[in-house]
Write a structure and sequence with these properties.
341 residues; alpha/beta; Rossmann fold; 2 domains; 6-stranded mixed beta sheet; 10 helices; 15 strands; globular
């Protein structure tokens, strides 16, 4: 974990000099972001509505909070309701030839980024990436989609939205509660009050009421029941895999690598060696020289889409699915039904 993240989330002793040093920049960030939001509110900056409903799945902080599993879950819910969903994304880390870029079976992470590739392969629905989310949404409508799900984009106020879901890491919450760069937040915690649903990823560390946002909080758990072989996509149950391989190595290039390592240990794995990387890490074979081939190497699904070209025979990834209580699931279904009516 980088020093700045330790300051944000773990109250590292460096906070005593680093936070005061960064506070002037935080004040500037607050001023500029407030002016920008107010300009959209007054109509000085133009925002656009598209002809189909738009669902935003975002967060108020940096790093991975679990947005992608929520997006996938919403796609599947929309399908069960007879809708034709599509997904738009910034495509962070990718560089396509033209934008908006519509993914195909031949698309690579170099073109589209890791999360859009993951969503496309998992959901088999249209996925369009690019910095202009309005153009992305229009492209999906041209492709026949009748509901637009935006992976991130909460602060992209140029695109009007019909439903806002904000995802919060139940363990890390809001860190030190400060805005960037002294803290991890893009917007203050009060922004949660404007969301339609606030989804906490994992049991919430109760602190100062952060875990209760009026009556619109939902609890999501990420459930894993199987592993997939990266080279062949062969599936094996966790029970069967653990019967032969308890000791493993593990890597994670996500917002919170430790969350993945903790998950593996809770499932019964003994992590002989683990290595965290920065979020959206563009892996090369050299990044794995530290691992011997005598143990399986486990990684996240997001990491796997970037490693398939050079994966070894004992490399596996752990797909996870978002799971909600029956009550919270019905809340999501009703929101989607209202949009479709």
């Amino acid at each position: 974990m980088r020093l700045i993240e330790k300051v944000w989330f773990e109250s590292h002793r460096a906070k005593w000099w680093l936070v005061p040093l960064l506070l002037p920049l935080t004040a500037l960030f607050f001023l500029l972001s407030s002016i920008r939001r107010f300009a959209f509110y007054l109509g000085l900056f133009k925002s656009y509505s598209v002809s189909k409903p738009v669902i935003i799945v975002g967060n108020i902080g940096v790093g991975g909070n679990g947005k992608t599993p929520v997006v996938i879950h919403l796609v599947e819910l929309a399908k069960t309701l007879g809708l034709k969903p599509g997904v738009i994304s910034r495509g962070y880390g990718g560089k396509a030839e033209t934008y908006p870029y519509s993914l195909s079976e031949l698309s690579t992470t170099e073109q589209a980024g890791d999360e859009p590739i993951l969503i496309f392969k998992r959901c088999h629905v249209p996925v369009v990436v690019g910095s202009d989310r309005v153009a992305n949404a229009q492209k999906l409508i041209e492709l026949g989609c009748d509901v637009i799900i935006s992976d991130d984009g909460l602060q992209h106020y140029r695109l009007q939205r019909d439903l806002e879901l904000i995802v919060v890491d139940g363990k890390r919450l809001f860190g030190n509660g400060l805005l960037l760069p002294a803290g991890p937040l893009r917007e203050s915690k009060s922004r949660l009050n404007n969301a339609d649903v606030v989804i906490f990823n994992g049991e919430c560390n109760t602190r100062d009421g952060d875990c209760q946002i009026r009556d619109k909080s939902s609890l999501m758990t990420l459930v894993a029941t199987k592993l997939r072989h990266i080279q062949t996509d062969k599936e094996i149950s966790l029970t069967e895999f653990l019967a032969n391989h308890v000791e493993v190595n593990a890597i994670a290039g996500i917002g919170s690598p430790q969350r993945f390592f903790d998950t593996l240990q809770s499932l019964g794995f003994n992590l002989v060696k683990q290595q965290g990387f920065i979020d959206h890490k563009n892996f090369t074979p050299n990044d794995f020289n530290q691992f011997k081939n005598d143990l399986p190497l486990l990684m996240t699904e997001k990491d796997a889409v970037k490693c398939q070209a050079f994966a070894k025979d004992n490399w596996w990834y752990l797909p996870v699915d978002a799971q909600f209580s029956e009550q919270d699931e019905q809340v999501l279904i009703q929101h989607i039904k209202q949009l479709a009516s």
